Amino acid sequence: MHPSDRVRFVIETAKAVLDERLPADEGAAAVAVQAAQITPLLRSDRDSVTRAEAESVATQLRLLAEQVNDRASGLADPAAHLEIARAIGEMAQALR
C-alpha cells in the first residue's frame, strides 16, 4: 500500500482537530490507535515506493505535526495536541 493512502485517516483527523471540527482529546485517541496500527506497516511501505515518494509523505506528516505543535503552544491544556504531534512525528520518522 502506498504510504499516503495509509496515513490519510491520521491526516484528516489532525486537520479536523486544527479546524476545531473534532475535540483534541478525541483526535488524540484516534491518532494514537491509528499510529500504533500503521507505524510498523509504514516501515515496510517505504521499501515498496521510491525514496522520493516516501520522503514526500514524511515531509507532509512532519509539517502537519509542526502545525499541531504550534497550535498547542497557545493553549491552556496542550496535552492532546502534543500527543497528536508526537504520534504523527513518529510516523514520519518511520518513513525515513
Please, could you describe this protein's structure?
It is a single chain. The protein is mainly alpha-helical. Helices cover 78% and strands 0% of the residues. It has 5 helices and no strands. It has helices at 3-6, 8-18, 24-45, 51-72, 79-94. Helix 2 (8-18) runs parallel beside helix 4 (51-72) and helix 4 packs antiparallel against helix 5. The longest helix is centred in the middle third of the chain and has 22 residues, at 24-45. It is elongated. The chain starts with a helix and ends with a helix. The mean pLDDT is 95.
Order of secondary-structure elements: HHHHH
Low-confidence stretches: none
The whole-angstrom Rg is 13 Å
Alpha-carbon distance between the termini?
17 Å
Classify the secondary structure makeup into a structural class.
Answer: mainly alpha
Mean pLDDT: 95
Record field, number of beta strands? 0
Describe the structure using short key phrases:
elongated; mainly alpha; 96 residues
In brief, what are we looking at here?
The protein has 96 residues and is an all-alpha fold. The chain has helices spanning 3-6, 8-18, 24-45, 51-72, 79-94. It has five helices and no strands.
